[in-house]
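ingest -> validate -> predict -> emit
validate: passed (alphabet ok, no gaps, 698 aa)
predict: started
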Amino acid sequence: MKKYLLKNLDCANCAAKLESSIKKLDCVKSVSIDFGTLSMLIETTDINKVQKEIEKIEPEVKIIDTNEKKSEEQEENFNPKTELIFIGITAFIYILGLIFQKQLEGTTFHLAEYVLFLGVYLMSGWKVLFNAFKNISKGRVFDENFLMTIATVGAIAIHALAEAVGVMLFYKVGEFLQELSVQNSRKSIRALLEIRPDYANLIVNGETKKVNPENVKVRDKVLIKPGEKIPLDGVVISGNTQVDTSALTGESVPRIIREKDTVLAGMINKAGLITIEVTKPFGESSITKILELVENATHKKAKTENFFTTFARYYTPAIVAISLLTAILPPLLISGQTFTEWIYRALVILVISCPCALVVSIPLTYFGGIGAASKKGILIKGSNYLETLNSVKTIFFDKTGTITKGVFKVTEIVTKNDFTKEEVLAFAAEAEVHSTHPIALSIIESYGKKVDLSIIKDYQEIGGKGIKAVIKNRTVIVGNDRLLHHFNIEHDICSIPGTIVHVAIDSKYAGYLIISDEIKEDSIKAIADLKKLGVKELIMLTGDNKDIAEAISKKVGIDKYYAELMPEDKVSILESFISNKTRNSGKVAFVGDGINDAPVLTRADIGISMGGLGSDAAIETADVVIMNDSLTKISEAINISKKNKIILLENIAFALGVKGIFVVLGFLGIATMWEAVFGDMGVALIAIFNASRMLKIK
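emit:
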């Protein structure tokens, strides 16, 4: 998939039409166009063919490669000052026409009335007329341009000249206000993405040189002064400071940074002068990946958004049909009714029925929700996932690194059969030396000596149980109780509270290590918050023994647990639950660490990764990424989803409700064209303003 910008795209309905048409091209595998960010995400073998298709529909819209021109550099063909002056002049001429209209009627100067009003009509509505005729010539009839053209030309034909011109002028004013609102929303969206560092102080031959972060290479040295953004991911090689991570995690408390600590692009240096050694090029830095996720998130569209794009396609023809029947049937079926009166009523229905309010406001609402979440350190990869969060009723949790800290320490060594503590710890560390599991790392750290890899032979990892290896010509097995039973090792106790690693040497039980892992400070509160939000089932999955699982579940308030699981067991349990759940039992989420839980994260309706700040694996794997490992962020994400749903429903109910009322009033002859155009543009503006509330959620 590649991202392009779309220059001169000024209509949400046009964006929907372009997307629909491009999807039909044989060279296009998938495409998504987002009006909120004026971008297109596409997988195609022939971008030139796509450009030609775009030119057929919207000749002025041009594709811009993001590699050639950045989004913030894109020029928009909208100048509020120029537009306002033009509208002011046009409105002044129109008011003059209204003042002198009665005086001109019945005189030899009555033609001046037509010249004056038609001049204003063409000045304010030439673009609408041009687009309508252009689309009709290409076989695309039903859109807002067509509705306005038919309505106003029809009004002129029945000599409602002033109203026809007024409708077009006020439509122009409404479009101006709508474009101004959308532009302000885009500015808010861009503001969310302005954490991208602008420059780096590259150290060259002892001197600093200000350069573009994209030009800095791995292992280059960069100086960061107090108050500056850290431009690239790296390791501190000199200096101590505090950094503001709020742009990445939403946390307001500064983080203390010392030598050898890792820092990430987008953090702000608050205090001391530090020098870092760059560990990743800018294109692979955490901030770049985060920004790409946020920018591209709206291309994964929610069902509601897709529904209303399709709805608009059928809605306009239906309204035209209703208007046509309104103009024709009553005069034919009811005595005393005139065609002039019912044509006017039909034209009022056409004016009020433009679908712009929904087509523009719904995508903006979703983007606002995704942006609000990103400010809190929650990355939601698409509006479809934002919508799914609202329906989550069951959450499965991994234990280690999710509910607990995943920071293990060897707290006790128990020996058996005359083995010493030093022997048990040494053999355990030597057996675990190739493992990257947190428990293995804690054993190696406790051992505190460098392991000679040449003494280890026939290394074998036994999935979900442990390790077997030949060390110093002795057969060593290190793992859980199931491993002892697997090799028929005699031992006097099976169930021991805590995380236990057993050690056997030459088929003789040598003892066990007790490994401690703490529950996260916010786990209890997070579980309670989720229950308050209406999540019905909270289930923990762990490879640890039953005693540990039961103790942790009770302490944090989890309803149910499955213990002593192999990695594949987690997937089986989740699949069994999903296949047995009823249609109304809601969506299923899985929360894991994003590294070893990839299959389960993928299988769930929505995968939430407690991946930690800067974890590439977390960012790649899950649908939602919690940047600071805090479980309380899950309830915050669900809250944002619920607020997003409320605003969507408000816009849908308000837009359809007001338009429905005006259609009835227009049919009854109560509403005039003046009221219809105010109603149409007013609904669109209020819906857009309401959608922009999502961008301001704190």
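The longest helix spans residues 632-668.
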